[in-house]
Design a protein that fits this description.
Chains A, B: Its EC number is 6.1.1.21. The structure is a homodimer. The first copy, chain A, is α+β, with helices and mostly antiparallel strands. Chain A is built from 17 helices and 16 strands. The longest helix of chain A has 25 residues. At the A-B interface, helix 1, strand 1, strand 2, strand 3 and helix 6 of A face helix 1, strand 1, strand 2, strand 3 and helix 6 of B.
């Protein structure tokens, strides 16, 4: 076989043991919180039929799907022209997110499920995006959703989950919330129900470009001067959530949908306030999130001490499963961005130091007799639940100590000829250099 | 969007919450043992370059690779003929196993790694095999390998890992071992070094077809009658490992490689014997395993109480990384078959009952005032680390109890108007039907 310089496809990554231990720390923390809130795990296949995926992410999304070439002789029986159309040579694709497979799963298995159905899902997704810093072609999503209830307690629960996850990870965050019904209500109230997106984008730019420029932009997008005048009090909203909602109620008095959105947010904020969370939860009218399927609450989480995009986000959707023929099933969910959370924790030095190595003790291997004495000791340490190793070869002491150092193993248990004669182990703390001797029978207890 | 009956590609599976909890139990158990032995996690991308994958699994394996269609306009600039060749329209494939990506990783990152490098990897692999009972197109492999040492302590450690994993899972197993050097030695000793595979296959059939038929088959495969005569004592080997190795030593006296294999096995068996494992570890000369890269010890694990193929297997390889230009790096590893282990545990009823649901308590939701009283109680229970839920809607009691039943939640915490007035929760054990009342302040302690 020819020699070759090995590499991996662009936009993909290997995760080294050090990275994996940090990533697993994040995943384990998130999973633990999901479980505490009664969410159960689900996994779906990496491949879905293209009929499941196509048309769910817009034209741009369709182009970013990774397609699987049909197995066997994909070209058999096809004309030259047909070979130029992906639909003839490919009928499966890699999942693009966890939401569409989840909707597909719920519809396919609706008869077996107990609703409300609370599930979490932590799996990789694939997108043929142009790779760039912080954007990958394979990345994990960590989604948590409850489907089959309109109860706003679910929104409250997601707020608590966000608080608990980031508190456990040590990341200070603020949770921004908005509501699609309020955004629609604003557009409706100023007489431009069709321009909800333009108006939201303009509100979003307020801090950056100032009130006058936002006014100009809205006029340029076809809003009437009167509509822009009516929008102005909304742009200038201030105060706490309660005060903002009170002001909004006056402006949206004529929009039934808008008033419903205000009521939803008030319920959620009241409930959250009673829980007394340390995390700030703020109404932010500039929050829109691109996903068209959201119909109620929208969430976005920002790290307070590190400049990066949102590290978690989600919302309420009233018809996710309608695309698969199961209408009127409301759900709400959020997704945690593992890669960005990893970057924040690395940037702020938040990973616990002991994550660098799970092995607590390395036993030396300094000769046949020493090795024979060490093996039962090693077994007793492992029996006690302490991750431990023996250096597999009878190498020089220096080489074995280097191995412990490079691996980040905190304790070396030395058994040389003197220790063997005395029936003791010399335990060396690799950080302080301190040494002490422990009888064979007490090793497991001493390293625990 | 058109309605469609959703489904998933053949040979793939959704894993429901109940299945996931059982699968995670298996994965967590295996992972915990791997960690206890000092192995560190690694993950590689789902996609590899086809140049990495092709030619590593034989012609049959190449055909079973799932290929990714090139992104963008895959047909641009290609002739009609080129479109009929997969190599022109596809340059990436899904990984087929974890071994080749591991070898690729070690070569690519050799400068950063500390050898011996001990890693485990638990990820799905994909094969375009014909789906059938127990054979899937997407399935997980759980591999553990140490690379960069020839120490037989690694073989011993893998034996211990097998014992510990299956003891923890409650599966009684026997570990069969063989050694490629012995197989080669046998072939060499009877003058047919080129017929190692034929001879091994024949030995394997001994129990099924009997000595005379094996003799006939070997003659049919071109072995001389003298060679078959010389093989006969090997076919009739009996006794414990030690006695078999002693008998073998006489037969293989003229094969240096064979004697080396005997010595290796004796070292491993002696070391294992001193550890006093409960699990039987048996020399089985019929064990060959198909993978050509094995060069020393070979392992296979059989469940003793359930009829199924091997549930774990592996071996020593001396040149896995040579295909990527890094020769002479010896390693040894084993792989655990999660799907078969799942089937054994299901068949023998070995999964703990509490795996059915991680939620311990469901709080009822019987009205506005009741809900307001329950939310802080629920939070206190979750603060205590107990997975708990509130029924999100104010539905009829019967519906809420049914939800708890169907989910398998063992405890329901009822707060109705009477409980609310008295400041107590009625805790109902869903299995026994027993009820007791607990003051609000004591709920978290009571359910813990």
């Amino acid at each position: 076989m020819a020699q070759q310089k090995p590499s991996i496809p662009k936009g993909t990554r290997d995760f080294s043991p050090a990275e994996m231990m940090r990533r697993n720390y994040i995943f384990d923390t998130i999973r633990q919180v999901f479980r505490t809130y009664g969410f159960a795990p689900l996994e779906t296949p990496a491949m879905e039929n293209l009929s499941t995926l196509l048309g769910k992410y817009g034209d741009e999304g369709d182009k970013l799907l990774f397609r699987i070439l049909n197995s066997g002789d994909y070209a058999a029986g096809l004309s030259d022209g047909e070979l130029r159309s992906a639909s003839h040579i490919s009928e499966k694709g890699l999942r693009y997110d966890l939401t569409v497979p989840f909707a597909r799963y719920v519809v396919q298995h609706q008869g077996e499920l107990t609703f409300p159905f609370k599930r979490y899902q932590m799996q990789p997704v694939w997108r043929a995006d142009r790779p760039q810093k912080g954007r990958y072609r394979e990345f994990y999503q960590c989604d948590v959703d409850v489907i089959g209830t309109r109860s706003l307690l679910c929104e409250v629960e997601l707020v608590e989950i966000v608080e608990r996850v980031f508190a456990a990870l040590g990341i200070r965050v603020a949770l921004k919330m908005n509501n699609r019904k309020i955004l629609y209500g604003i557009a409706e109230a100023i007489g431009h129900a069709d321009k909800m997106t333009d108006i939201t984008v303009a509100i979003d730019k307020l801090e950056k470009i100032g009130l006058e420029n936002v006014r100009a932009e809205l006029l340029g997008r076809g809003l009437s001067p009167e509509a822009v005048d009516r929008l102005q009090p909304i742009l200038e909203l201030s105060g706490d959530n309660d005060s903002k909602l009170t002001q909004l109620r006056d402006v949206l008095a004529c929009s039934e949908t808008g008033l419903k959105g205000i009521e939803e947010m008030r319920t959620v904020f009241d409930c959250v306030a009673r829980l007394g969370l340390a995390m700030p939860v703020e109404l932010d009218l500039s929050l829109a999130r691109g996903l068209n399927y959201y119909t109620g609450a929208i969430f976005e989480v920002k790290a307070l001490d590190f400049a990066i995009g949102s590290i978690s986000g989600g919302g309420r959707y009233d018809d996710l499963t309608g695309i698969f023929g199961m209408p009127d099933v409301s759900g709400v969910g959020i997704s945690f961005g593992a890669d960005r959370i990893y970057d924040v924790m690395t940037g702020l030095g938040l990973f616990p130091a002991e994550l660098n190595c799970s092995t607590r003790v390395l036993f030396t291997n300094l000769g046949e007799a020493e090795q024979a004495a060490v093996l039962p000791l090693l077994r007793s340490v492992r029996d006690a639940g302490v991750p431990a190793e023996i250096y597999p070869d009878q190498a020089r002491m220096k080489k074995q100590m280097e191995y412990a150092n490079r691996r980040g193993i905190p304790l070396v248990a030395i058994v040389g000829s003197e220790e063997l004669a005395a029936g003791v182990v010399t335990l060396k703390d690799m950080r302080t250099g301190d040494q002490r001797q422990v009888p064979f029978a007490e090793v497991a207890g001493a390293v625990k």
